[in-house]
Amino acid sequence: MKNSYKFFGNPDCICFPCHDAVDSERFNCLFCYCPLYHLGDQCGGNFEWTSKNIKCCTKCTIPHEADSYDFIVAELKKNSRRNVHSDKQESTG
After folding, report:
1. Which of 49, 47, 37, 28 has its CA nearest to residue 76?
2. Which residue from 57, 61, 21, 65 is spatially nearest to 37, judged by alpha carbons?
3. CA 79, 54, 90: angle at the middle one, nearest 5?
4. DSSP state of 38
5. Are 57 and 35 in contact (CB under 8 A)?
6. Which residues does 93 contact at the CB level (< 8 Å), separation at least 6?
7. What is the SS3 assignment for 29?
8. What is the average pLDDT across 49-67?
9. How far is the C-alpha of 65 from the C-alpha of 4, rounded, in Å?
10. What is the pLDDT of residues 70-84, one digit of tens each?
11. How far apart are the C-alpha atoms of 50 and 72, rounded to whole Å?
12. Does residue 17 have a cis peptide bond before it, meaning omega lies within 30 degrees of 0?
């Protein structure tokens, strides 16, 4: 998977690895900031809500697993379609 558009490793990063549960050889840094975070409880990841109602993703490794690219893209497409249908309903009243 090295040098693939679906994978980018950055072992020189000061935060690498930011999650210990993923093998450092297969640690994908492509989605350093998870593009699914904004989906709240619909992201499909292993997250928790803190006592201050902040989404905590420290136990989630989905964006950093070498083979998660297709899952993330599919979830983004699904969410995009949801928003398009929602926008159409709001504009038709």
Report:
1. 37
2. 57
3. 35
4. G
5. no
6. none
7. coil
8. 92
9. 14
10. 999 999 998 887 665
11. 24
12. yes
Rounded Cα–Cα distance for residues 2 and 24 (Å): 13
Higher-pLDDT residue of 13, 91: 13
Q: What DSSP element (H or E) covers 80?
A: helix 69-92
- Residue in this structure with the two tokens 């803190």, named with its chain if needed: 50
Instruction: Find out whether 14 and 73 touch, Cβ atoms under 8 Å.
Output: no
**Which residue in 6, 3, 12, 14 sits closest to 64, CA to CA?**
6
Predicted TM-score (pTM) above 0.90: no
Q: Is the peptide bond before 11 cis (omega within 30 degrees of 0)?
A: no
Domain boundaries, the chain: 24-92
